[in-house]
Design goal:
alpha/beta; two-stranded antiparallel ribbon; 20 helices; 11 strands; nSTAND3; Novel STAND NTPase 3 domain-containing protein; P-loop_NTPase
């Protein structure tokens, strides 16, 4: 491609090149010749040969940077947009350390201070403490002062223990940005941070190819050329791996420039459309979200959830729509769950916009996530990329629902 772009070739030279190709590869089928108009630019990327795939994970430069930084730093903080592949990166890194004989203490969202007390003070055991989704997936926990004090105590204990244990943290960018300066519990040393948003075009293409390979319910394809054009317009608010995941799962819905430039807004609008035109399909997906883990072989549905969402919903209805829900769900052969937290956020946005009584539904959903996703809808509130704006006059109703639910749960 570069040779032909940069050379002015006459017909004899072109024929010589084609002749050499035929010597190597045999006679070229006439159907394999494609005429391009002079104005058409062939889009291509050079795939970096140093990206390898291990256990189904593409080892990106970001992952390599984490491994390299952990050789010299006791604390490493991985920060990136939601959907950037943060959890995949942390799981890969901790697996490598486990294979090298290290003990891994893994925590998700919540912080277990007691894990430090379990570690031998003078022992030689090599340990990595890994906390994924620090301060929550959606971010409500950034308002809890006690949590910051707990985390600061945790970090002090880590520092006072010398070289062991090592600490690997993962936090979403939108959660990090929500932390007020006076509460910021992180070290001032910027060299401890790894930016997980720097996925190259070639890495994005390789991730997309890998996702296509692993996709059991592929609903079509887009060409590599079209994919590269789309990915040039990708949003920084949502990680590239999530965008490529949705494009590979449903290219007819998400393989367009609107999704790449505004992925969260496009996903939310798509669910708004499902609510209007395919209510049973939407309610089936929302049921799976509410119960967190759905067993398609279970005899009965959770009737509290069913009555809150749609009384016409039944096991056969959900079973009928499962194949259409594949782009948004993960099926391991036994149970089904929502594929990504961003899909959950978009579903809640769509419900609160469309439902006449969303709190009836959210009453059967997880309290913490409901709280995390809501922000006051007024000029005094800081803007938030993914939060559901709630008018202050609705606060009393929301509070009564949550209080009643908490009372019965406890």
């Amino acid at each position: 491609n570069e040779y032909l772009d940069n050379k002015t070739l006459n017909v004899d030279e072109v024929n010589q090149i084609l002749g050499r190709w035929e010597n190597f590869f045999g006679v070229i089928n006439q159907d394999d010749y494609i005429e391009f108009c002079p104005e058409k630019k062939i889009i291509y990327v050079k795939v970096k040969p140093n990206n390898v795939i291990e256990n189904g994970v593409l080892v990106t430069q970001d992952i390599a940077n984490i491994l390299e930084k952990m050789k010299s730093k006791k604390v490493v903080i991985c920060r990136g947009a939601i959907g950037c592949g943060k959890t995949t990166a942390l799981e890969y890194v901790t697996k490598k350390y486990r294979e090298d004989g290290w003990t891994i203490e893994w925590m998700d969202v919540s912080l277990d201070e007691s894990c430090i007390e379990r570690l031998p003070i003078h022992g030689i055991e090599k340990t990595v403490i890994c906390i994924d989704n620090l301060f929550g997936v959606f971010g409500c926990q950034v308002f809890v002062n006690d949590l910051f004090n707990k985390f600061k105590r945790f970090m002090r204990k880590i520092v006072n223990r010398g070289k062991q244990p090592m600490v690997l943290l993962g936090i979403h960018q939108h959660v990090f940005e929500d932390i007020s300066p006076e509460n910021n519990p992180f070290p001032k040393d910027e060299s401890l941070f790894i930016d997980l948003n720097k996925i190259s075009q070639s890495e994005a293409l390789q991730i997309y190819k890998l996702q296509q390979k692993n996709n059991k319910s592929k609903q079509g394809d887009i060409s590599v050329e079209d994919f590269l054009r789309l990915i040039e317009q990708r949003s920084s608010d949502v990680g590239t791996p999530f965008q490529t995941l949705m494009i590979s799962a449903a290219p007819g819905v998400f393989g367009n420039k609107w999704f790449c430039s505004q992925p969260f807004q496009t996903l939310t609008e798509h669910f708004n459309g499902l609510y209007n035109t395919e209510r049973e399909l939407f309610c089936s997906l929302f049921y799976i979200m509410c119960v967190t883990i759905f067993n398609p072989r279970a005899d009965e549905l959770d009737m509290d959830v069913v009555n809150a969402i749609s009384t016409s919903l039944n096991r056969n209805t959900i079973a009928y729509y499962l194949s259409q829900l594949a782009p948004y769900t993960h099926d391991d052969g036994n149970v089904i769950e929502i594929k990504h937290d961003l899909i959950t956020i978009a579903l809640i946005h769509a419900l609160i916009r469309k439902s006449e009584n969303p709190w009836k539904v959210l009453k059967v959903y997880d309290n913490t996530r409901t709280l995390e996703i809501v922000r006051p809808d007024d000029p005094y509130a800081r803007p938030h990329k993914f939060a559901v704006p709630l008018r202050r006059e609705m606060f009393a109703k929301a509070l009564s629902v949550l209080e009643e639910k908490t009372f019965y749960e406890n």
